[in-house]
Specification:
With about 450 residues, this protein is mainly beta. The protein has helices at about 1-10, 55-60, 70-80, 85-90, 105-110, 125-130, 140-145, 440-445, and strands at about 50, 60-65, 95, 95-100, 120, 130-140, 155-160, 175-180, 190-200, 205-210, 215-220, 220-225, 235, 240-245, 250-255, 255-260, 265-275, 290-295, 305-310, 320-325, 340, 345-350, 355-360, 370-375, 385-390, 395, 415-420, 425, 435-440. The strands form five sheets. Strands 2, 3, 6, 7, 8, 9, 10, 11, 12, 13, 14, 17 and 21 form a 13-stranded mixed beta sheet that branches. Strands 1-22-20-19-18 form a five-stranded antiparallel beta sheet. The chain is globular. The two termini are about 40 Å apart.
């Protein structure tokens, strides 16, 4: 907690703290009505069912594995030292388009109800490529209470490589990159790409990280993302951003320098949280679950990491659960106890399937948290639904004459709540329909049928 406290003291009172609160934009989605039959998730997922502690411990327990500090220091030294988030943002070479610069197709990807209060679209090449797909979002509002990292307000958007072409190199499938977005000026957002990598050979080299990036949380100075192939979670240190000095398609050491598949910056993993029960199994009850999406809940004590099960092709039920962040000074990680174990402190099942995003939040004097889950439609051309669940039932917005709940964005990814501004952030994923947008959580609650 020392890291967070230092940031609060240094930045509190700065004018930038209010820049994302702004006035609401009059954003609307497509006027086309969407029928109930078009949208998966039109039927209520019902209330949450608590899981017994025994099964929770066995199926959801993780173990922390940290990369040696010597290897990380060796890699940093060989690559000229750490540049940090500020160094990446100062070198931003892409600009996001404000709502007026978004195309009609992009604006049609926004939620029908409630409407977004701010929305941004990517540069044309990133907006249209089918090879990379945006999947997750987290912000400096997760990282620290005041929403600042240094002098910046920052949004991180995780994209994964999904070429789908027969001629695509297998090594590229699942590559993971993150857009570091400088959101300090809400009227002028800029970003730079960073490739995720893992140290090897004692820090003398690195290799690409493969991840679906279904979920991502920035907490203090660490970034936690979902790993690939059922291997749990990966952890990165935002102080250890490094600059590649060779511009080539290779990833790793090249001669006397380092290359990152054409990207200028890399973020090396510092460790992982691996399932103690072995590799995950999709779609099977009472098995180790594959991680789908992640988010941060600051309304618990201590703060907690919220997760949902990836259940592709599985009709449910789907598990959602949380881990508490550690307050122990002896851990260099964030979640583990003294023995390196990470145990879920709360877990439920929901009848909702194919969940694309999950959020838990306790408002006011409420005793229990409300859980928000995003459910995709059958097709990426159809709007999704966003449900608020508790043990008592589930509710969602109704936005059409035929009582459809298909009101959320098109092909949306993970959810992230910016506590200081009260905004819920997410992004849409289809080519030519990619938008990063925010909706006040109070508007989500107010729209529920």
């Amino acid at each position: 907690m020392k890291q967070r406290g230092r940031h609060r003291r240094r930045r509190r009172g700065q004018a930038l703290r209010a820049t994302l609160a702004g006035t609401a934009l009059a954003l609307t989605a497509a006027a086309t009505l969407i029928s109930t039959s078009q949208a998966t998730g039109a039927n209520s997922p019902g209330g949450l069912t608590a899981l017994r502690s025994g099964s929770v411990s066995q199926e959801l327990r993780l173990h922390e594995n940290l990369t040696s500090r010597d290897a990380l220091d060796t890699l940093s030294g060989n690559m000229g030292g750490n540049v940090g988030v500020d160094g990446v943002l100062r070198d931003a070479d892409h600009s996001m388009r404000n709502t007026g610069g978004c195309t009609s197709d992009e604006r049609a990807a926004l939620p029908v109800e409630p409407t977004a209060t701010r929305a941004y679209c990517w540069e044309d090449a990133d907006a249209r490529t089918a090879r990379w797909q945006p999947r997750s979002v987290t912000t400096s509002g997760d990282a620290d209470d005041d929403g600042l990292w240094g002098a910046h307000q920052v949004i991180l958007a995780g994209w994964t490589h999904r070429d789908g072409q027969a001629a695509a190199p297998a090594r590229d499938e699942g590559l993971a990159r993150i857009a570091f977005v400088d959101a300090s000026d809400p009227d002028s957002l800029s970003y730079r790409w960073v490739l995720l990598v893992a140290p090897r050979a004692g820090g003398r080299d690195f290799t690409a990280v493969h991840s679906g990036l279904g979920g991502m949380v920035w907490y203090q100075d660490k970034l936690i993302v979902t790993a690939a192939h059922g291997q749990g979670l990966l952890v990165f240190d935002l102080h250890r951003l490094l600059r590649a000095d060779v511009d080539s398609g290779a990833v790793g050491r090249v001669g006397h320098g380092y290359s990152a598949a054409g990207y200028r910056y890399v973020l090396p993993a510092i460790g992982s949280y691996d399932p103690e029960g072995g590799a995950c199994t999709r779609g099977r009850e009472h098995a180790v679950p594959c991680f789908g999406s992640l988010s941060l809940d600051r309304t618990t004590a201590p703060d907690s990491l919220v997760a949902t099960e990836a259940a592709v092709g599985h009709a449910g039920p789907t598990r959602v659960w949380r881990y508490s962040f550690s307050t122990a000074a002896y851990r260099t990680g964030l979640l583990a106890d003294a023995q390196g174990h990470v145990d879920a402190v709360e877990a439920y099942t929901t009848k909702g399937s194919g969940i694309s995003g999950v959020l838990s939040h306790r408002s006011g004097g409420a005793r229990d948290a409300q859980w928000y889950i995003g459910r995709p439609a059958d097709s990426r051309t159809q709007h999704a639904s966003l449900w608020r669940q508790s043990g008592d039932g589930a509710r969602a917005a109704t936005c059409t004459a035929d009582q459809s709940h298909a009101c959320w964005g098109l092909d949306t990814g993970s959810l992230s709540y910016w506590q200081r501004t009260g905004e819920l952030w997410t992004l849409t994923g289809g080519p030519a329909r990619r938008v990063l947008y925010a909706v006040p959580l109070s508007s989500v609650d107010g729209s529920l049928g």
